[in-house]
Amino acid sequence: MSVLSFDRVSYQYPSEDFDIIDELSFDVEPGSFHCILGVSGCGKSTIFRMTNGLLQPKKGIIRVNGQPISGQKQYCGYMPQKDLLFPWRSVGENLALPMEISRKLSKKEQSERIDQALNEVGLAGCRDKRPDELSGGMRQRAAFARTMLIGSDLLLLDEPFSALDFLTRISMQEWLLDQWQKHRHTILFITHDVEEALFLSSSVLVVEQTPIRALKEIPVPLDYPRDRSVLAKPEIVSLREELIGMLRKQVVE
To answer: Is the pTM of this model over 0.70?
Structure first.
């Protein structure tokens, strides 16, 4: 069974006279890591906003674990570009938010899970710090830990590293792959960075045009675990140029 399924889904923004998503269908398998690649403004984030319920489709059905998302709660974790940590809360208090909302765990259980999550993302000892005491990469790791504490196997990551400096971004990409290999969550990762998509994903879902009527799946011929040296392989260099050409075509059109 697919973790996520779009069945002829369409969406039109009130200010537009066309459907930016036009009868889109695709499926995402459990434990997979896909990057959705497309130029800025092509509609990638609209897919996520419909998946997490922030936008309602004009038509079509979105299913998670075989069931329509309407009526489901905490069925996916969502991490946007900005970390959105509340500055007046400590790191630990920020991580507690999804558990406070669900009201399923005692304070003791929440505390134990917060400590475990912080340890997993390399932030043990940062529980009582404020977000402004952390570096950009540390804030993103805290935001990822909060996303995982929602308790869903489906994680939607919307350009989470795009605001980071180059070296921090590389470090976070390597760290994210390590986290995925440990937990095998199902990850959809939006980017417009071709090398980021190739390094992270098992296959790239390319937006070739707007309106989005299909996502073209292109397998990445690399095994896990990976390091950045794989990006220099001839077949990956060739695939990178192919993907760049696809994006350039969309810009020209």
So the answer is: yes
